Amino acid sequence: MSKPEFNVLAHQRNQYCFEEIYISDTHLGSPNCASRVLLAFLNAITSNHYYLIGDMIDGQRMRAFKPFWPSTHEAILAQFNLRAADPKTTIDYISGNHDGGLAVWMAAHGISTDDNRQCLKYRGINFRQQMKVDNPLPDEDGVRQPFMAIHGDRFDSTLSHGLLPMIGDALYDVVSWLDRVLNHWTDKFKLPHIPFARTLKHAFKTVVGFLTKTDKRLAGYVGNHGHKRVFSGHTHYAGRKMIHDIECLNTGDWVASMTAIARNKNGKLVQIDFFPIYQQYRRLHNIGDPDPSRAFEALAEKYGAQKVEARSELITPELFNLSKDGYFGLKRGGNRQFKTAYPDLLSLAMYGKNPNELNAGQPHMKSFETSLSAIERPKVA
Fold it and tell me: Taking Cα atoms as reference points, which of 372, 375, 363, 374 lies closest to residue 98?
């Protein structure tokens, strides 16, 4: 009997509903993105409110290297766009450093980095520099705890140290590549997944966080705004901790951690570690189980999601033939280009402009970098 071909999606009859989902650092456009795991997660869950807390699209990498845009990345972007079109769903997208073009775009429309209220609504998504929520849903104890949502890059002093961020990104790519190679062989020989990248990145980010006092700066900034809770990303390591009297929740990433934060039906904030669920889903699929999506029941059993009939359209990479008519090429230097149905979103994340605003598809990098560096950053202690 031949081994069944693996697909990111089984025939799902159900989804698992959370009141809110907080997610960041998916890095679409980078080979480091765990896109099949992320797509399985998005197909498994549904929510009324998504907070996308920065670096969802890796415009920085796509500017610097030959574009990487496989069908799984296109399918993920399609999933968010489908949900944004649902009038019952709200999506707030807070810009980060890797999708810094969005910050340039918003600044050009008068939205400063320190602006908590204003947003640009585009394709049904609310694009923001940061966000302040004064009347949130109640926690499990019935208390409504106001919070802020900020990517967190502005509090990382290493980003202003010339070559240091470039060296860090290069090492990051090497570690991620080694992680993919190592776990290709663990999968091949049916061995447990080894969290190589997660362990190394945690150690590195802990040292950097200690030296730069990134977390303390973030907590101080939130405290100065009169709030006691903040959701952030950037460090790529999920966690929940108190700094002084500020509750800091980090969503992790979809490169090594495969984590998100969700508010379940009881108001409890939970950190979802999705990778073990995905591994079980894949194991059931590979042994020919008639319903491998039952692995997702852990979202209800462990994290308190409400099991509902599938309400969101389920997306697979196979729906996207990226060479077919109707898809548009976004030029990226010379004759290199890639196909996407969303050239506007990718162009905004990369350059802060729509494709038709670029000079014959050839953006002026010096002009873009000048615009990015000119954005006024709030002073932090």
Answer: 372
Query: What is the spatial distance between Cα 36 and Cα 25, in angstroms, rounded to a whole number?
Result: 15
Question: Which residues 6+ apart lie within 8 Å of 214 measured at CB?
Answer: 152, 155, 156, 157, 208, 235
Residue for token pair 């320190």? 114
Strand partners, 328: 340
Which tokens go with 309? Answer: 């009939």
Using an 8 Å Cβ cutoff, are 217 and 155 in contact? yes
d(CA 174, CA 55) in angstroms, rounded, equals 19
Give the dihedral of Cα atoms 350, 357, 75, 323; nearest 10 deg.
-120
Q: 88, 129 in Cβ contact below 8 A?
A: no
Distance CA 213, CA 148 (A): 19
Q: What is the pTM of this model?
A: 0.84
pLDDT tens column, 190-237: 666 666 666 666 666 565 655 457 888 999 999 999 999 999 999 888
67-95 b/e (C-beta count within 10 Å ≥ 16 → b):
bbbbbbbbbbbbbbbbbbeeeebbbbbbb
* CA atoms of 74 and 304, how far apart (whole Å): 30
Strand, coil or helix: 240:
strand
Q: How far apart are CA 67 and CA 363, in angstroms?
A: 14
pLDDT attached to residue 377: 42
E strand intervals along the chain: 14-23, 45-53, 90-94, 120-122, 125-128, 131-133, 147-149, 229-232, 239-243, 246-250, 259-263, 269-273, 306-309, 328-331, 337-340
